[in-house]
Design a protein that fits this description.
Blueprint (H helix, E strand, L loop, with lengths): L1 H20 L7 E3 L6 E3 H6 L15 H8 L23 H17 L11 H10 L18 H4 L15 H9 L6 H15 L19 E2 L16 E2 L1
Helix pairs in contact: 1-3, 7-8
Length: about 240
Amino acid sequence: MNSIFAKRRARLLAMKAIRDNQAIPGEKTVTCPHCQQVSDRKIVAQGLSVCPKCGYHFPIGAYYRLSTILDPGSFKELFARYPAGDPLNFPGYRAKLSAAQRIVYQLDAAGVPITLKSLPFEEFTAALQSGDFDLYLGEVVLTADFDLTALLSPEGTLNYGRWQDSQFPALLTAFLQATDTTREGAAYALYNYLCQQMPIAPICFKNGSVLTQWGRLSGLSPVRGNVFYQLENWTIS
């Protein structure tokens, strides 16, 4: 009898692990939130959820992680309906949760009732991809040139709100192609327009930089967590 229940537990864990590792059924590609590059989902899975382009470690679900370290049938889940906490103190989790709670409080005070729902990463991503949200709090890492294409263009991989605007593409192109003398004006025109349209509401911004000796190194394209991303393209003079 015990072996029967053990087999059932093993099958249940395997099914939940597959769900964790395939959060968006039917999607064959996955976009890295760090380097913004698109990779085949199977390749990412074969690489143990590591981006093949920049080495970023994708978050993985608890069931998938358990399936990689436990013997089949040896795990019995208890209190599955209890809400998840943050026992490992993941960096940034409590700050993001506090920010979301503050947003709910302020909107409620303004007469806009909001229900806050904290989701595991896989369910959160699936909700974004399917458009199953009214408002979401997320984090995005921009490239050094502040290219907003992935975040706000109609074909952008991070434009989960499906925002479209007839003037934005031209303003973004003018900003990205601006020279040193025209960049400030192009930036003002772009961001002033975005402030009027408000497709997103920035809450916090953090800037990172890599310092090198002037004129000695070119071709750098660092991403968060990997300063040496695309090292093969570096040129030392």
